[in-house]
Write a structure and sequence with these properties.
The protein has 422 residues and is an alpha/beta fold. Helix content is 39%, strand content 17%. The chain is built from 13 helices and 14 strands. The strands form 3 sheets. The protein has an 8-stranded mixed barrel, surrounded by 4 helices. A 4-stranded antiparallel beta sheet has the order 3-2-1-4. Helix 5 crosses helix 6 and helix 9 runs parallel beside helix 11. The protein is globular. The model has no long low-confidence stretch (mean pLDDT 97). The structure holds 2-phosphoglycolic acid and zinc ion. 2-phosphoglycolic acid binds next to loops.
């Protein structure tokens, strides 16, 4: 049986890709194996996510400091981790949950706990002498189809677009490297089109462009044209499109969606709109098309277009195995986004993947809008074998760190299959 013993657990406050503080956790095992993790942070968060601990001291980073979370790692969590020999990561993660004592990890902070969990996983893999993507359990190794967020709106950009993410999914590629090249080439074609139309080519938080366009239809037209400009076929045989409207962000108190310059749409009208978008554009996947508390609407949306497109639950599921299990029962969505810090440990993330796998819900492993150069999710996506990842644009260091790690894995494991499993 495996056994793991740590001799050092440490943390410091570093900056994320938005210039906001986050944690870097470092650990070392008694055999010298090192582990490190940079903790991601979202902007359009689900209300049921595990709680990210921030200092709230207005004199530092306008209250966003994480010195309290750092201190929890260096004291309580370090004492726990150093105090025992561990049979595996699941045992360590369970002990951290117990020590925290809350449902939502609000006492010690999901940011502290997930940082230790990710760093510990890396160290355990190193101690066992295997790459993280081989050490984590799952159906892999399989290289995922990258979903490149090329136009940003919503909470990720200061433009008029309500929809948060417009993504390219090179489903027709046959290798990860070809998919990455397709994404990068179409990204440049989008820049050229926007510049040619006199549009600003500045970027949003995930490295996608943030044009001054008002409607999703206008963006989708640019994407389809740019895919063709770059020499690819728009659609599932070439480069398809995925959306993350992140619609909880534009839902009004009365339950209506404020959409396209202030038009208020009911849930049924939103569903009609998605059906029309799917008819008109080569969209293969829609994430958070409806708000996290609109469960009845989600069930209707799933019944209406769930046989034609992937419907991914993000804010509504928050990578929570129990919530996903309920959704499966209620036929809500047909796929799930997977984010480590939404649930707060690697073990619970793996459990969420497992619930999905058993229910036949595809999984898409995801970054957050606030990132570091940590590439843990690249390895996680390969290990899970889920065949899908989203990590923002094929540009900006913190986004391409994941894609470049996947290139390295593909080179190291040439026999691993690529793409969404059939
Ligand atoms: P977030 O958004 O990381 O800002 O929460 C990402 C998403 O909604 O998928
Ligand atoms: Zn989302």
């Amino acid at each position: 049986m495996a056994s793991y013993r740590f001799e050092r657990v440490d943390a410091m406050e570093i900056l994320d890709s938005r210039g906001r503080p986050t944690l870097e956790v470092t650990v070392q095992m008694t055999d010298g194996a090192p582990g490190r993790a940079g903790v991601p942070s979202g902007a359009s968060t689900g209300t049921r996510e595990a709680v990210e601990l921030r200092d709230g001291d207005p004199a530092r980073f306008r209250g966003a400091g994480v010195l309290g979370a750092v201190s929890h790692v260096r004291t309580e969590l370090a004492k726990l981790v150093l105090g025992r020999t561990w049979a595996g990561l699941d045992e360590l993660d369970a002990a951290m949950r117990e020590l925290d004592g809350t449902e939502t990890k609000s006492r010690l902070g999901a940011n502290s706990i997930v940082g230790v969990s990710m760093a510990a996983a890396r160290a355990m893999a190193a101690s066992d002498g295997v790459a993280l993507y081989r050490w984590l359990p799952g159906d892999g190794p399989r290289l995922p189809v990258p979903h490149f967020n090329v136009v940003n709106g919503g909470a990720h950009a200061p433009n008029r677009l309500e929809f948060q993410e417009f993504m390219l999914a090179p489903l027709g590629a046959t290798t990860f490297a070809d998919a990455l090249r397709a994404g990068a080439e179409v990204y440049q074609a989008i820049r050229a089109r926007l510049a040619g139309a006199g549009q600003p080519t500045g970027l949003g938080d995930e490295g996608g462009f943030a044009p001054d366009l008002a409607t999703p239809e206008e963006v989708l037209e640019v994407l389809v044209a740019a895919i063709a400009d770059a020499g690819y076929q728009p659609g599932r045989d070439g480069v398809a499109i995925a959306l993350d409207p992140a619609s909880s962000e534009f839902r009004e108190a009365g339950g209506r969606y404020r959409y396209a310059q202030g038009t208020l749409l009911s849930t049924d009208e939103m569903i009609d709109r998605y059906a029309a978008l799917v008819d008109r554009f080569p969209i293969w996947s829609i994430e958070d098309g409806l708000a996290e508390d609109d469960w009845d609407g989600w069930a209707k949306l799933t019944a209406r277009i769930g046989d034609r497109v992937q419907l991914v639950g993000d804010d509504i599921f928050v990578t929570n195995p129990a919530i996903i299990a309920t959704a499966v029962e209620r036929r809500v969505a047909n796929a799930a986004l997977i984010k480590l810090n939404q649930v707060g440990t690697v073990t619970e993330t793996l459990q969420a993947i497992d619930v999905c796998r058993k229910a036949g819900y595809p999984q898409q492993v995801s970054h957050r809008s606030g990132e570091t150069t940590d590439s843990f999710i690249a390895d996680l996506s390969v290990a899970a074998g889920c065949g899908q990842i989203k990590s923002g644009a094929p540009a900006r260091g913190e986004r391409v760190a994941k894609y470049n790690r996947l290139l390295a894995i593909a080179a190291e494991a040439p026999g691993a299959p690529f793409g969404v499993p059939a």
